[in-house]
Amino acid sequence: MYIGYLSTPIGELKIHGDEIGITRIEFVNAPGCERMHSCIIQAKKELQEYFEHKRKAFCVPVHIVSGTPFQRKCWEALRHIPYGHTWSYYEEACFIDQPKAVRAVGQANHHNPILIIIPCHRVIAKNGLLSGYGAGVERKQFLLDWEMSDGQ
Fold first, then answer.
1. Where on the phi/psi map is residue 39: left (φ > 0), alpha (ψ -120 to 50), or beta?
2. What is the pLDDT of residues 114-141, one digit of tens each?
């Protein structure tokens, strides 16, 4: 297991990885000891570029090691939402051909292990309002505003 940390405008990120790719990104209160690997270095670089408005898509390999098949399907769908755009939970449910699974999609997104790179923050309620985000609605709002402003 490899670990790196990155300070961002919305808090300290802890980036986990293995020999295959990034396995988890989470917010933590303070950095700890790092154990670097090329995937961690690449993730830190790409995330830094994202927070400098220099990157809109991530190339770092991810390795999802948790989740049910349904959750994984939802998390893969998230990667299709373009930078600066949003989908509703209903649109995501339709994308995975399960339009009646709106609540299940919301729950799957809540358990997304790779924040920002797998952009669950881009999913909002059908009425356009923000709804839950595992890392806090304030961070979700920041990320959406960040992408919409694109350095303006």
1. alpha
2. 999 999 999 998 888 787 777 888 999 9
CA 149, CA 143: separation in Å to the nearest integer? 10
Instruction: Locate 60 and state its tokens.
Output: 């770092």
Note the pLDDT of residue 152: 52
Low-confidence ranges of the chain (pLDDT < 50): none
Assign 107 to helix, strand or coil: helix
Helix 69-78 and helix 102-110, axial crossing angle in degrees, nearest 10? 80
Nearest to 29 by CA among 13, 9, 52, 50: 13
Report pLDDT for 51: 96
- Given the residues 33, 39, 74, 120, the one annotated as active site: 120
Active site residue 120: yes
**In the numeric block, which tokens belong to residue 92?**
């995501």
